[in-house]
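job 3f2a | input accepted
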Amino acid sequence: MLLKIYRHVYKDVVPLDEIEEHLDCSDIQPYRCNRQLVIALTPLPHCGSKPDNDTTCEICKRRLVDSTLYSYCSISCKVEAFFRKQDESTPPFLLLKNAEIEKQKKNDQPLPVTRAHRRKGVPHRSPLF
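job 3f2a | predicted structure (129 res):
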């Protein structure tokens, strides 16, 4: 399984629909890049004036669009926040569905391979003049 990593504002980003299968991205702010929602792997560059404390990322203090929906600006900020927490009651940010899918793949029988289009017959040699 491969994830495509794109460049956005000189930083690496991953498409949101692909990374959601592996990570819980609920608190990470997505960005729009070429009409596709992406999640930054590392914090994007800071821009503008000094931001308010209530509308920033909890780790790197980068400005967020909506502080009620998002708490982090990138995957690395969420991972760092996870490791900073002292209590063990919080669930991990990795999704466990992936392990269950791998078990199901091992148990499933392979599908028979069939050709979608059959040839229209025996190819004929061009006439010699």
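job 3f2a | The first helix runs from residue 16 to 19.
job 3f2a | closed
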